[in-house]
Every structure is written in structure tokens, then in C-alpha cells.
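re: that chain from earlier
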Amino acid sequence: MGFSSMRLSFDFMNFFSMVVVAHPKASQAARRALVGAMTLLVAFVVGSPGVLKRATLELHYRAGAGELVLDSQDARQQLLATLNGTQDISREVSWSAEPAGIVRLDTTGRVIPVADGAAVISAKSRDGVTARLPVRVVHAGQPAPLHFANQIVPIFTKNGCNGGGCHGKAAGQNGFRLSLLGFEPDEDYEHLVREARGRRLFPADPPRSMLVTKGTAEMPHGGGKRLEIGSDDYRRLVRWIAQGMPAGKTNAATVQRLEVFPSARTLALNGEQQLVVTAHYSDGSTEDVTRSSLFEPNDKDMASTDANALLKIFNQPGEFAVMVRYQGQVATFRATIPLGAPVDRLPLAKNFVDELVFK
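^ sequence. v structure.
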């Protein structure tokens, strides 16, 4: 049943109802027949898989974005698989890409470049619904240049190293000081590279640098373990040291704003929602900074986030927000968690209309 025929049916029934109900000689039987016909029509429309029950699956990584372009060896992009426009099933779908060898995807929907070329990413739900997204990879063999303020300082912020309770306080911690939340990256660079005769960094063997071994707790560290060996932050930090600790170009693009996708959702109790964070730079470029951002729910009794920006909802209805921070920029995700109807306390269905409503 198409939308045009559905509209025609409703228009006809509307006209028929006005005639029957308004007519002074309309019998009770006629009125009952009208109600029955209207009920059947509504039930047919609600139950019609071609009108309202057809499942749709969409792939997103940013609002209004089209083809995905990965422009370096280090480029990464988190994707979202959304069912019927509202339900995140990114961790439930099967991810693939054709032809093989251009990109690879992990089980969370994160895209990693392998070789230059074009491909199509596919996501398939358990019910067989499929969505596709074109992707193009360029400069797959070239690492992106590192900039201390743009790529290294956010690692300290995300892991709490430059917070007020750690090295970010005025006196620092155990002889090592960072600016609060990384707002003075030039000072941070001086403290790391030139202070204490450079003993915190060891370019000859980057993984054995004091900065790295303390962060991974391979060396005793009062702040405990902050880095996982092999993680994105770990690899970026080691590569920065191996490259000679570059400060980066003085005229390098800076982050102008932060975008979180989606920006708002209505979620179910005990549900999940993957977030995607995009940094917009002053030169017009963008970068996926999902796993480099800091996420702070304003109500920790309602939700939590992990290192991969997966938002986990607890069994608590209400509203809350998640503040996302990266490089001094802030974005906000808002969520509404309805109470819903307790399944074990619904009244008994007396007809098929009740069954549809309760469902």
C-alpha cells in the first residue's frame, strides 16, 4: 500500500464518517460498522510492512556528510549504523568493504586505511537490512605530520594528566608540571622536552621514555596506569618521540569548533549509543577525534562512557547531558531516557488493536 493510496483511504473514510455520523437517520448499526471499518484501516496501515514497518539502516559519521575520505596513514573514522533513524546498532551489524584491501573495519565500525583506492563499506543487520557508504583512501603510505598542541596535548587531557589533581596544578606533581587542561601548550612543550635535561624523553628508544613507561605503569607512577600499550594514544606518543618531538608549524591550523554526532537522542533503559566527535579546523579541514576526546556525563548515575566513546545507559529514566572536550573546545550530547511502560504490568489485551498499541 503506497502513501498516496493510504491518503486516499483516509480521505474517503473521513468523508464517509461525516456523512454517516451526522445523518439524523443513521442507525446504531451503521455507526458501529463505521468504527469497525476505521479500526480495520488503522490496523492495516500500522501492520503494513510496506508503510510503517519497513526497517531502514543508515551509515553516518557526521551530519550531512557524504563520501568518506581518509587522507593519510593515520586517518581513522568511527561510523554509526542507525536503524530506523533512532536506534544505534553499530556493534550488532556485520561490517565489510568491497573491494578488499582498501580499508579494514573493526567490530565497532571504525574504518582504518590500508591502501589507496575507492571502496564501498557495507553494514548488514541481523534481519538482513543493508546500508552502504562510499570511501576513498589517498596517501595511505604517508603518516600525517604531528603537531604538539593539536595531537599530543589532548592525550594528557583525556587521561587526566594535566588535571588540577595531578600535574596540572600550580606546583605540579613530583617535579613535573603541565598547564591546567593544556591551555598553555608552549609551556608544556618546554617542561617535557627541555626541562630536567630532557630525561623524560628518549628518542633512541621511544617506548622506553620515562613519559611512556610511567603512563603505562611499567615504571612506578603515583597516578597509576594511564596508557594502554598499543592504543591509539600510545602509538601517537611513541611516534612523536621517534620523530624528534616536533613542536609543529607555528602557522598550523587550529581547532575552531567541535561537533558531536548525534547531538541528541531518545534512548532506552539499559541501552547504548556510540558517539562520533569531529574537530573542525581553521583551514576548513576536519578530523575524527572520537578516541582522543574527553567525555563527562553530568549525571553518573544515569550513564557512563568508555575509551571508545560508547555511551552506556543505566536503568534510570530522566534527562542528562555529556560534555565532550578536545583542545579547549566543547560540544554537548543530550539524552532523554523515558520511563516506558512496565511490561509485566500492562493490562490484558482484549483485541488486536490493544496488542498493536501495547507492542
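The longest strand covers residues 318-326.
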